[in-house]
């Protein structure tokens, strides 16, 4: 151990009064930079340079992390991931303490600086969808910020671009992808070429209905209900025209894009992580989605009997 380091740790052990260690603090900043200095008996202290750590105000830190949480929550991220991302980003900007809380309809965050000043804000989330691309981009931004490969200004600019950009696929590719999913699941049900083809059409029609309903900003679960009715009607009509085509296989393949798989997965993940409120609310949302799909199919089948 060099002489300066030996003197530094000797002073830490001998002196019980941290206020008398200003020279030691200055030495620690030169050796290690501002941050945490671990004590001998498991204790620690945190060195701060004022209310604006790294020159970033509380308002700027809160504006960055609340936008990140809002973007992730809007695009289907689980609440535990939203909370962790907000905490990591705020600490990367120099916050002394961060408390974050997220539920499916809103995010809350409190950021405290080294001087003990706190700022709390919340953001209400009205519309939610599934866009894993945006979630991945915010996660990558958070990692780059935490690794100091990105400064605050660049992170804020990039995050605003992610929030406003039009991501995802256009209508044509998404309709085709939905049809492929429906046809693939029909094949798993021992469907023949004809049944797989009509399942493709039913699932593609469901995706097109989703596109129309999203533009109309209708009531929640309207898309699932109308999509299930369209898939069931397709199966009934095809079976009426070609009796050799299985009605049930076409219907099952058509409603597969409506299954709330991500919502169920996130609900289970939130419950396991201890976020019972978010887990139960997401589970209820998935259950209501399933009920809407079932009602759409049952109504068409009841009328066609």
UniProtKB/TrEMBL annotation:
<keyword id="KW-1003">Cell membrane</keyword>
<dbReference type="GO" id="GO:0022857">
    <property type="term" value="F:transmembrane transporter activity"/>
</dbReference>
<keyword id="KW-0812">Transmembrane</keyword>
<protein>
    <submittedName>
        <fullName>Uncharacterized membrane protein YjjP, DUF1212 family</fullName>
    </submittedName>
</protein>
<feature type="domain" description="Threonine/serine exporter-like N-terminal">
    <location>
        <begin position="64"/>
        <end position="303"/>
    </location>
</feature>
<feature type="transmembrane region" description="Helical">
    <location>
        <begin position="249"/>
        <end position="272"/>
    </location>
</feature>
<dbReference type="Pfam" id="PF06738">
    <property type="entry name" value="ThrE"/>
</dbReference>
<keyword id="KW-1133">Transmembrane helix</keyword>
<dbReference type="InterPro" id="IPR050539">
    <property type="entry name" value="ThrE_Dicarb/AminoAcid_Exp"/>
</dbReference>
<dbReference type="GO" id="GO:0005886">
    <property type="term" value="C:plasma membrane"/>
</dbReference>
<dbReference type="InterPro" id="IPR010619">
    <property type="entry name" value="ThrE-like_N"/>
</dbReference>
<feature type="transmembrane region" description="Helical">
    <location>
        <begin position="284"/>
        <end position="303"/>
    </location>
</feature>
<comment type="similarity">
    <text>Belongs to the ThrE exporter (TC 2.A.79) family.</text>
</comment>
<feature type="transmembrane region" description="Helical">
    <location>
        <begin position="225"/>
        <end position="243"/>
    </location>
</feature>
<keyword id="KW-0472">Membrane</keyword>
<dbReference type="GO" id="GO:0015744">
    <property type="term" value="P:succinate transport"/>
</dbReference>
């Amino acid at each position: 151990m060099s002489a300066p380091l030996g003197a530094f740790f000797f002073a830490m052990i001998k002196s019980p009064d941290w206020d008398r260690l200003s020279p030691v603090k200055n030495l620690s900043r030169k050796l290690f930079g501002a941050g945490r200095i671990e004590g001998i008996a498991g204790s620690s202290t945190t060195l701060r340079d004022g209310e604006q750590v790294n020159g970033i105000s509380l308002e700027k830190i809160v504006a960055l992390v609340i936008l990140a949480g809002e973007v992730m929550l809007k695009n289907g991220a689980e609440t535990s991931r939203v909370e962790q991302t907000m905490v990591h980003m705020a600490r990367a900007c120099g916050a002394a303490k961060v408390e974050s809380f997220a539920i499916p309809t809103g995010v809350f965050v409190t950021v405290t600086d080294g001087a003990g000043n706190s700022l709390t804000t919340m953001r209400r989330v009205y519309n939610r969808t599934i866009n894993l691309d945006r979630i991945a981009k915010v996660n990558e931004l958070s990692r780059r910020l935490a690794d100091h490969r990105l400064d605050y200004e660049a992170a804020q600019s990039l995050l605003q671009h992610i929030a406003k950009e039009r991501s995802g696929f256009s209508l044509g590719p998404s309709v085709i992808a939905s049809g492929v999913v429906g046809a693939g699941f029909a094949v798993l049900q021992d469907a023949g070429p004809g049944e797989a083809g009509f399942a493709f059409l039913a699932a593609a029609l469901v995706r097109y209905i989703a596109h129309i309903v999203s533009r109309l900003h209708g009531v929640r679960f309207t898309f699932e209900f109308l999509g299930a009715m369209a898939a069931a009607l397709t199966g009934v009509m095809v079976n009426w025209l070609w009796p050799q085509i299985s009605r049930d296989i076409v219907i099952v393949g058509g409603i597969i894009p409506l299954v709330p798989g991500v919502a169920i997965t996130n609900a289970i993940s939130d419950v396991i992580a201890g976020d019972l409120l978010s887990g139960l609310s997401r589970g209820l949302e998935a259950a209501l989605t399933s009920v809407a799909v079932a009602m759409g199919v049952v109504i068409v089948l009841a009328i066609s009997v």
